[in-house]
Amino acid sequence: MDENAPKIAPETATPKAPRLETIQTSSVRLGQLPSTEAISPEPLYVTKPSLPPLDDFIQLIRGVWDRRVLTNGGPLHQELEWALATYLGLEHISLFANATVALVTALQALQIRGEVITTPFSFVATGHSILWNGLTPVFCDIDPHTLNIDPERLESLVTAKTTAIMPVHCYGHPCDTDRIGKLAERRGLKVIYDAAHA
Fold first, then answer.
1. CB-side exposure of 166: number of CA atoms within 13 Å?
2. pTM, 2 dp
3. pLDDT tens-digit profile of 85-111?
4. Is residue 151 within 8 Å of residue 165, measured between CB atoms?
5. Which residues does 8 contact at the CB level (< 8 Å), separation at least 6?
6. N or C: which end of the chain has fewer CB within 10 A?
7. DSSP one-letter string for the chain
């Protein structure tokens, strides 16, 4: 045993159990609770990915196994970049290993400095991409109905140090891009959309 470890006084060694007392005095007893099957036949997920048919995916994976190319720049990577560029009508497009790397790179490519307004209701990578670039995240509250950044509250957060807005399309619901774009144009700000949720 570590001699430097903090000593626990005997009176604090046993935690008090208000939760246990609550359970013991509750009118519902263990075994009497409704089963989850009675509540819902299957779990309710906040997000659930949309996946292709497994047989279609297996055909793609067989090609990867045959070629033995697992890194960026392989045939599937190049094919997806070409298909996306064609579909979106773009001359250039780059795929990244994940959205975090893409956000970090976008902030660097646009030479963003100072403050970036974003939403606190996102995966931690949104804020990290800002912090890892030495920038200051400024959190704007969300619209309670869309769960996206609230365009009504954005303008009041813009300061002389603000250079960009990083909204997140939460759970596949797009942000109000028209209002955000007009604000950004009026105030001379860049907009970088985090579309990882989309």
1. 34
2. 0.70
3. 999 999 999 999 899 999 999 999 999
4. no
5. none
6. N
7. --TTSPPPPHHHHS---HHHHHHHH-SS-TT-SPPHHHH-SS---S-------HHHHHHHHHHHHHHT--STTSHHHHHHHHHHHHHHT-S-----SSHHHHHHHHHHHTT--SEEEE-SSS-THHHHHHHTTT-EEEEPPBPTTT-SB-HHHHGGG--TTEEEEE-B-GGGPPP-HHHHHHHHHHHT-EE--B-S--
Name the residue with tokens 């990915």. 49
pLDDT at 31: 54
CA distances to 84, 97, 168 from 88, rounded to whole Å, are 6, 20, 20
Of 74, 131, 67, nearest to 100 by C-alpha is 131
Contact 161, 171 (CB under 8 A): no
User: Which residue, chain included where needed, has tokens 């759970």?
Assistant: 171
Q: Report the pLDDT value the prediction gives residue 198, as an integer from 0 to 100.
A: 76
157, 184 in Cβ contact below 8 A? Answer: no
- 72 and 97 Cβ atoms separated by less than 8 Å: yes
pLDDT one-digit tens code per residue, 43-58: 767 777 788 889 988 9
Q: For residue 120, give the amino acid letter.
A: P
Q: Exposed, middle or buried, 190 (CB in 10 Å: 0-12/13-18/19+)?
A: middle
CA dist., res. 187 & res. 136, Å (int): 18
